[in-house]
Design goal:
Glutamate--cysteine ligase EgtA; alpha+beta; 464 residues; two-stranded antiparallel ribbon; globular; Creatine Kinase, Chain A, domain 2; 9 strands; Gln_synth/guanido_kin_cat_dom; 44% helix; 9% strand; seven-stranded antiparallel beta sheet; single chain; nucleotide-binding
């Protein structure tokens, strides 16, 4: 970063500048050309995956993993979950190949420590334990603890397959960014249902096929639910960002400040020159969740300094809606999948439905009626998304939408140059789950009634 750029990001930001900055970076439009995937896994004992992870073994493995010649950034979540984020790829084939190559190296290194990667949306057995002691995670924990246990579960016990697609064209149409934004929030419920893979907590059924998604809906809604639907997604997202509560204020030494009930907009107005954001600046994008606010919530928390553009960018990184626009679209609702290669299926299906124009148009028509089931509330706290997390594809409307979505994706994959192996994986998943109104969580629940070696809860390939 140039010295001039550093000075810009480090000085106090006005409300007008914050509004303009968010609108400038949230949707970067153009032809969809790149895609990406972020793969999260639980790290577990290779011989006893239900056993709590040993810190010393995990630390030794992490040290060896850091020395690997990976092309993908490798990071760890607070509970020790591993995340691999291959660079954006020009094609589905390239994205899969790069992730597979790096995962092979990671798995070989973990085997030397008798550890393995396990794909579940939520740890089926263990309580959340924070391994990482950085100020960011201590502040996150303190913030979420005011509301209840959902934050710690999200931080330390969850894992997902996050698919990243380009924002799309500025112009309207099947690949226009406004259409893709709306599609993501309707199709997202179908993806939750089709790939639900977290029905257990403490070794027992929770009543949800995606406990991870149910837990996400219990997080602070000011940072975990989607913006209210609007004609202009940029305006809706900018309002959402400025009105979202500030999780923490960073500092160089000592613990970070964790304010209560202070939005980013209020931070600017309380400590600096807020100015006028824009004549189009609407009211807050979502009403205050008064039934669930901590009892000490209020705008009176002392803030140590005015916010900067760096603070604004960091603030955006602490927002966890099901679809997050960061130039591209991050789809964050898919549970981690059991089996070494199972992550390829949600990546392939999602890519096909967003980046093939014919498939995108077909699936949009198929999921559009789901808006009536969603009602007026944004995901994930509306009836459609709760049904997806609880009932998955046993719900007839979600099942019908999933059948249409997977059919469109399978027809599109050859047009996108997907390998026969990848096409076969999607076909097998469709036959095994979607056609039968099932999801991976159903295998886990079946295994509780009829346990066999290699059942899905162990993290290895289950019964066919």
């Amino acid at each position: 970063m140039l010295d001039e750029d550093r000075a810009t990001t480090a000085r106090a930001i006005s409300e007008a500048e914050a509004w303009a900055h968010v609108q400038a970076i949230c949707f970067k439009t153009g032809p969809p050309r790149r895609l990406g995937v972020e793969l999260e896994f639980l790290v577990r004992d290779a011989h006893a995956p239900s056993r709590p992870l040993d810190r010393d073994r995990h630390s030794a493995a992490v040290a060896d993993l850091r020395s690997l010649p990976l092309r993908s950034p490798l990071t760890f979540e607070p509970g020790g979950q591993l995340e691999l984020s291959p660079p954006p790829a020009p094609s589905l084939t390239a994205c899969v190949a790069e992730a597979e190559a790096d995962l092979d190296l990671v798995r070989a290194t973990l085997r030397a420590h008798d550890l393995t990667l396990v794909g579940h949306g939520c740890d089926p057995y263990n309580l959340p334990v924070r391994f990482l002691d950085q100020p960011r995670y201590a502040a996150m924990e303190a913030y979420f603890d005011r509301r209840g246990p959902a934050g710690r579960l999200m931080m330390c016990s969850s894992a997902s397959v996050q698919v990243c697609v380009d924002a799309g064209y500025e112009e309207p149409g099947p690949l226009g960014f406004a259409r893709r934004w709306r599609l993501a929030h309707l199709l997202g419920a179908v993806l939750v249902a089709a790939f639900a893979n977290s029905p257990l907590r403490g070794g027992r059924p929770t009543g949800w096929r995606s406990t991870r998604q149910a837990n996400w809906a219990d997080l602070d809604p000011g940072r975990s639910q989607a913006p209210a639907e609007a004609r202009d997604p940029r305006t809706a997202w900018a309002a959402y960002v400025l009105d979202a509560p500030v999780m923490c204020v960073r500092c160089d030494e000592g613990p970070w400040t964790v304010p209560t009930g202070v939005s980013f907009r209020q931070w600017i107005r309380a400590t600096g020159d807020h100015g006028a954001a824009t004549s189009a600046d609407p009211a807050p994008s979502h009403p205050p969740d008064t039934d669930h606010c901590p009892p000490d919530t209020g705008p009176g928390t002392a803030l140590p300094r005015p916010p900067t553009r760096e603070d604004l960018d960091y603030h955006v990184s602490t927002l966890f809606p099901p679809v997050r626009p960061r130039g591209h679209l991050e789809l964050r609702m898919i549970d981690a999948q059991s089996g070494d290669d199972a992550w390829r299926v949600p990546l392939a299906v999602t890519t096909a439905l967003f980046d093939d124009p014919e498939a995108s148009e077909r699936v949009y028509r198929a999921v559009k009626p789901l808006a009536e089931l969603a009602g007026p509330h944004p995901p994930p706290r509306n009836p459609l998304w709760r049904t997806a997390a609880r009932d998955a594809l046993t719900d007839p409307e979600l099942h019908a939408a999933a059948l249409a979505a997977f059919a469109a994706a399978r027809e599109a994959l050859p047009r996108l140059g997907a390998s026969p192996r990848l096409q076969s994986a999607v076909a097998d998943f469709t036959d095994r789950y979607v056609a039968r109104g099932r999801c991976p969580a159903d295998d886990v629940l079946d295994a509780l009634l009829d346990p066999r070696p290699g059942d899905p809860v162990s993290g290895k390939e289950g019964r066919r």
